[in-house]
Amino acid sequence: MWQRIQTLWLLLAGVAMTLTLFQPLALFSTQSVMGAENFEMYSLWVKNVSDGSIGKGLITWDLFALGALITMISFATIFLFKKRKVQMRLCVFSMLLTVGYIIDFAVRAWQFKAILDADFSIKFALGLPFIALVLLYLAFRGVRKDEILVRISSRIR
């Protein structure tokens, strides 16, 4: 199980999505008469940087749920090494969920930008879902190669 390269890809994808859950994804900066305010968007909420309060009505539980689901599926897929077809399906499902996470983030960021009337800038953690998407694809390719190898070797017998 641990000697297969797709195990490493799945582990790294799970770690990337775990980091995404707890790191700020974007920064919203507003200019007003009272001064500048900055808001950081996390997977679960949008937080005011200056006083640490969570913006009213700016909860993003759906992003957190998607990120947590992708993380759990990535880690669970590692232990399904004897069921390669299920592993391939879960990799594809995780990739689809990751694309959904990215789309959901884009929609939420656009909404919050309009609500806060703010400038938008991205943080490092926003790149992690894209990295996880690539890692999940690499894991899928590795599992597929194993499945093809097993089928060829059973035909030789």
How much of the sequence lies in strands comes to 15-25%
Rg calculated over all Cα atoms:
19 Å
Largest sheet: 5 strands, antiparallel
- H/E element string? HEEEEHHEH
Helix content: 55-70%
Work out the number of β strands.
Answer: 5
Instruction: Give the overall silhouette.
Output: elongated
Low-pLDDT stretches are none
- Report the total helices: 4
- What structural class do helix, strand and pairing data support? alpha+beta
Strand order of the largest sheet: 4-3-2-1-5
Mean of all residue-level pLDDT scores: 88
The end-to-end distance, rounded to whole angstroms, is 24 Å
Describe the structure.
This protein is of the alpha+beta class and 157 residues long. The protein is built from four helices and five strands, in the order H-E-E-E-E-H-H-E-H. It has helices at residues 5-22, 61-78, 84-116, 128-156; strands at residues 26-32, 35-41, 45-48, 54-59, 119-122. A five-stranded antiparallel β-sheet has the order 4-3-2-1-5, covered by helices on one side. The model has no long low-confidence stretch (mean pLDDT 88).
Topology:
Blueprint: H1 5-22, E1 26-32, E2 35-41, E3 45-48, E4 54-59, H2 61-78, H3 84-116, E5 119-122, H4 128-156
Antiparallel strand pairs: 1-2, 1-5, 2-3, 3-4
Helix pairs in contact: 1-2, 1-4, 2-3, 3-4
